[in-house]
Amino acid sequence: MVDAALAYDQAGCDDLLAIPAQGDPAAWWTEIAEPAWQRVAQRTVLAGPGAVPEVVLATAALRALRDFTEAFERAMVAGGAPPANHPSRMRKIVLIFAAPDEVVPLSAHALAAALTAKGATARIVTGPASTHRSLELVTMVRPAALVLATAQRRPDLDLIHAVHEGFAELPVIVSLRRDDAASELPLAATVQRVRSFTAMLHEALAVVT
Question: Which of 39, 77, 78, 112 could form a disulfide with 122 if both were Cys (CB 3.0 to 4.6 A apart)?
């Protein structure tokens, strides 16, 4: 997979990262996609114009997650479940944010797919989202839980503080692997720090299932 990304082989990456119909997006992320993403990010490359190995891999990963989720939802509806945007499914939605300056929030997309595969409903906030706009989204969506899914070592936590101040009862889950970064979180029972993707998924599922 790393070789395919470094060779700018988009079709090869797409094939290698495809998630089987009965696959597990959480295992796919922790065992395959994330390690490959980290290895590619560590490589120094003399690239030509328009050639970015990380973009090749990210494109393949996002395509795999989208294809899996769409196929899963189609199968759910065919089996009699309501569609993804049905009010009955939107009542317990997990709202997922990435760090404000995280360009490709792959872990957020992987978490949304993993939640979907467990029967939960999740949406990812993409594009520019100031703290004010983020609070508006929380007010509008009324999520059952909010998650900050990031690979950054010290992400900006202004959003977490603002959400906790405005919605003190809302469960907030924050993925932080560094203890010194975790010390900047609000001290509250509703704000949960996790160290791994698996723990982040389990905490989100505990709220909505």
Answer: 112
